[in-house]
Amino acid sequence: MGRPEVRVFPNLEDLSQQAASRFEELANRRITEGHIFAAALSGGSTPRQLYQLLASPPFSDRIPWRSVHLFQVDERCVAPDHPDSNYRMVHEALLSKGLVPALNFHRIAAELPDRDAAARQYAEELARILKPHASGWPRLDLVFLGMGPDGHTASLFPGSAALNERSRWVVPNYVDQLKAWRLTLTFPVLNAAAEVIFLVAGADKAETLRRVLDASSEADQFPAQRIRPVEGQVSWYVEQATRLL
Ligand code: 6PG
Questions:
Q1: Domains of the chain, with CATH numbers?
Q2: Best substitution site from 74, 75, 82 to test ligand 1's pocket, by max atoms within 8 Å of Cβ?
Q3: What is the pTM of this model?
Q4: Interstrand relation of 170-175 and 180-185 (parallel, antiparallel or unpaired)
Q5: What pLDDT shows up at residue 132?
């Protein structure tokens, strides 16, 4: 893998427009070739505008939604209507607009009391929809990730157990910093994707971003540095306020 591409945008709106264009381009390419298009969506606040754009013209009209399958990168262990739920955010921004067929959105049931069962169930769902890849890992066409000021990505937080997962596709992960459980896709799944795009906004992430992108910095200090698609590419879409400081 070469150096990641870094694209800097003056504001979140431009960043979100370009991310939506890339989604549209990749979806149309895959679907024209006769495949489904499978993308995984992060939660948090940064991608909300992107999801709203995908649900609005012109993007909504140009995306062949019937062949698009959407997965979650991670989920907080709360009910789907809880204010912290990533599903709730994606639902409000995108799913509620009625474009994505219900069967094409694959929700992590992180509210289940048996978190291991919920993780297994989600891995089975990935396996059901995505064709087996030679590597043995599911191959998502596109993954949108975020990054926290501590360098976490997905729900892979510094020091947490899930960082060491080598075999499972989806795991429950206790996040000591938040005193809360999450369910998350694991590094091997994220690194099996064809394309990963980080969406990063906010001046509070500037120093971490600088260190994450600094090739000479201590390798793998931050979880976000461990996103290196094996047969794919990674790009960083960064708001200028994050990049400049
Ligand atoms: C979540 C995420 C997480 C997120 C980062 C950045 O559930 O919170 O999927 O990894 O992408 O924390 O979040 P913001 O976009 O809110 O800064």
A1: 5-242 (3.40.50.1360)
A2: 74
A3: 0.97
A4: antiparallel
A5: 75
